[in-house]
Amino acid sequence: MEALGAAFHGREKRVYNEIVTKRFPDPLGWDWKAKNLAWRLHTPEAIRDLVLCIRAQKPPVDEFRFLAMAFASFRNDKERQDRVKRLQALAQLPEFSAEYYQVTVDEIIAKDLNDLEGEMMETSYLIPQQLGQLTEVSKPGEIAQLQGDITRGKAVAAKCYLCHKLDGIGVNFGPNLTHWGKERTVEEIVKEIVYPDEKLAHGYDKPVRLVSKKTGETAEGLLSNYSWHAGSLKLRCWVGKPEKFFSAGPGQKLNI
After folding, report:
1. What is the pLDDT confidence band of residue 117, given thresholds at 50, 70 and 90?
2. Which long-range contacts (CB under 8 A, 24 or more apart) does 112-115 make?
3. Scanning 24, 38, 75, 241, which has its CA 20 to 30 A from the CA of 120?
4. CA dihedral 216, 221, 223, 226 (to 10 degrees)
5. What are the angstrom distances between the C-alpha of 115 and each of 10, 76, 84, 109, 111?
6. Where do the structural domains in the chain lie, given as residue ranges?
């Protein structure tokens, strides 16, 4: 599906009108193939037909949430406002009055279909370059052969709370480590600790540094989401509130 989406980039409207609508002319009876194509192309015509499909098929909440996320992919403010109205209209239907449908619609409108007003940085958020005294560390294989001490190890692991969550405790900046070690050998775990930058988890490998030209404030963190069509990005910062949002209207520069 993503390969098709990449191949159709810049031609979405033509592909949808000349191929998809001809192969799947009746949105009321769409199968998953047609729904996926409309979801990925998300042209105004595709959204219009998705609304008809959703109204007719009354999907369960997991499918409803998936299809509704297509509404978040807009190309200008006119489309954004139109999609807000369409989602709100769906939420008014008796079939979708349950709380889990309402929460889904509210979340998409609030987080993905917001007014795109930029957020100025008020202070600098910098990732520490060093979290303690540097020491010389043995090779992972040598460390793995040592006899472990669960009590002392748990106390030392508390340092990881600065960036990670373990059993519900810590900061949601880096990957959650609660179940991370269960599928790895002791030597693999030690190697990841000794050489943390050698292999980065997917989604945590795009460090970004933003500097406000107006205030000089700086933010460093991980780029957790970027929306080319909305001109916005979400930066996961090393602060108490780990996520900070920066956005601008279509065609405008990010207001940071």
Report:
1. low
2. 112/69, 112/71, 112/72, 113/71, 113/72, 113/74, 113/80, 113/83, 113/84, 113/87, 114/247
3. 75
4. -30
5. 25, 11, 11, 9, 10
6. 2-111, 140-194
Residue 227, pLDDT > 90, answer no
Is residue 224 classed as helix, strand or coil in its secondary structure? strand
Of 73, 53, 75, 74, the closest CA to residue 64 belongs to 53
Largest CA distance in the chain: 67
Residue 256 pLDDT: 42
Task: Give the Å distances, CA to CA, from 3 to 41, 72, 212.
Answer: 12, 20, 36
* Cβ contact 9:73 at 8 Å: no
The predicted-structure confidence for 20-53, as pLDDT tens digits, reads as follows 999 999 999 999 999 999 999 999 999 999 999 9
Pairing between strand 232-237 and 218-227? antiparallel
Q: Degrees (nearest 5) of the Cα angle 38, 41, 45?
A: 65
pLDDT at 123 over 80: no
Number of helices (H), then strands (E), belonging to the chain: the values are: 11, 6
So what's the pLDDT on residue 255? 42
Highest mean pLDDT among 101-105, 224-228, 238-242, 246-250: 101-105
